[in-house]
Amino acid sequence: MKLYLGLDSSTQSLTAIVLEVNGTDARVVFDASLSFDEAFPQYGTDHGVLPSASAAHDGADVRDGGEAFSSPTMWADALEAMLTRVSASGLDINRIAAISGSAQQHGSVYLNGDAERMLSHLDPAQPLASQIPAILSRRVAPIWLDSSTSSECAEITAAVGGAAILAQRTGSRAFERFTGPQIRKFATLDPTGYAATARIHLVSSYLASLLVGADAPVDPGDASGANLMDLATGHWWDAAVDATAPRLADRLPAILPSWSVAGTLSLYWQARVGLPPARVIAWSGDNPCSLIGVGLVREGRVAVSLGTSDTIFGLMKEPRVDPSGTGHVFAAPTGEYMGLTCFSNGSLARERVQDAYGFTWTDFSRALEITPAGNQGRVMIPWFEPEITPAVAEPRVHRYRLSPDDAAANVRAVVEAQQMSIAAHAQWMSVTIDTIHATGGAAANKEILQVMADVFGAEVYRSTVSNSAALGAALRAWHGDTLAEGTPLPWSTIVAIAEPNVASRISPNAARHAVYRELLPIYEACEAHALGRGPDPTAALERFASRA
Ligand code: XUL
């Protein structure tokens, strides 16, 4: 029975999952995580991010606020620690046939001209991390939490002919955290550092390069988080590459399909931790890997993650693009596409309402139970924090026909607003959603999931997968290995392990779904009004409240 290793280098931690595969059955036989802050205090990270003082590195690269960096050396340290753990796990590691990985998207790692040669000659007598500084042309890596590149976004957008063209070609308008604007900022503010850079990797392709001891490709899934790839062709898009930085094309890795074999686990790892010469399948971003890890390999199934922020994502057969410019289209590891839209007022907004009334989660659920669907036309627009979707810089909570004193109605209002907002802002995907896999902390709340089912008119299942990105990486390793062996398995077989438990199913109620179908356009009118783009919707809400 073969083993497949999936790694997930996220913002705060490195996770490894090992699958044991028997024919078409897979089971998890190893699952471990290490937190960067706890395991590597010497880097001084806070939730995986370097403190700004230490990020005030080489002098040239510091500008006002919004910057977020992490350490490529720390990620390498974590990789070695985790592979050592896998090796010492008691598993028969010689059965590891393939390894793949997932990484936080958008982050970039800058390697110098010696890197490729040095990666192929790593010294197994020395820890990996001690050999990393010599291959870097930039000590730190900007990551997705960085919001400091607004001017670069504007410059790139103008140079390619506008936001609509950039979104149409690359899947997203320019976003501060995306790799292209980050590269432009480095090239502009530190031209010497940029000149010394021979290769710019994404976090995913950097870590894959460390495994194979060579320059690994990036996959289309992660490359589509760069504002640099032509989504339709899966190649770097010359216009965006040229608009971003001088001679950037020479510095970007090759883009190869997600299932490509990037190489073999290098002699360094074989000698240092005793792992076998397993195939290394191209790494991808955490969102494309999660798509697989949650089992979303057909259009119509989406995941809604109720975490710190709320996110909806799902497979799309065609690369449709969000005309409002808030959603993203990434390439999917299946060779298709995925849509993703993120909302920042997730758990935080739910908790703010809970705290305002001194409610426990039981009280919160009870409030949902005793209030009717549609909340009698009482609506909240819950922008407690700046919102990503729709873009709202100045946070403010808006209430329509809703008294702040009515605790139960406010609980229902926040939950209904979140679900209607997710539904409204997922319409651009043009996917008929029949099944939702709910993940994240708040998915434990059955009453919230009932509102979700009723708003979407879809079956909702609580996903039991705890680290969907690492599981997705392990499943991609399995899939890539079967292809390389000439015995490919269909994706539906590969993701069977992620199938949620039927017992967790929550079905929509037809009458309540009809209420939300009527309310949704009025909710959108409330949002437009709150954004200052539409008339006061109170009269429409009065009519809604007095119906039947
Ligand atoms: C997606 C995004 C995050 C990162 C970090 O666009 O910025 O989900 O991938 O996990």
Account of the 3D structure:
There is one protein chain. With 548 residues, the protein is α/β, with parallel strands linked by helices. The chain contains 21 helices and 21 strands. The strands form 6 sheets. Strands 1, 2, 3, 5, 11, 12 and 13 form a 7-stranded mixed sheet that branches. Strand 9 and strand 10 (235-236) form a beta hairpin. The radius of gyration is 24 Å and the shape is globular. It starts with a strand and ends with a helix. Mean pLDDT is 96; it is low at 56-64. The structure holds D-xylulose.
Could you tell me how far the N terminus lies from the C terminus, measured between alpha carbons in angstroms? Answer: 62 Å
Low-confidence stretches: 56-64
Radius of gyration (Å): 24 Å
Main sheet specs: 7 strands, mixed
What portion of the residues fall into strands of 2 or more residues? 15-25%
Q: How many β-strand stretches?
A: 21
Helix content: 25-40%
Bound molecules: D-xylulose
Count of DSSP-assigned helices? 21
Give the helix/strand class: alpha/beta
The coarse silhouette is globular
Averaging pLDDT over every residue, what do you get?
96
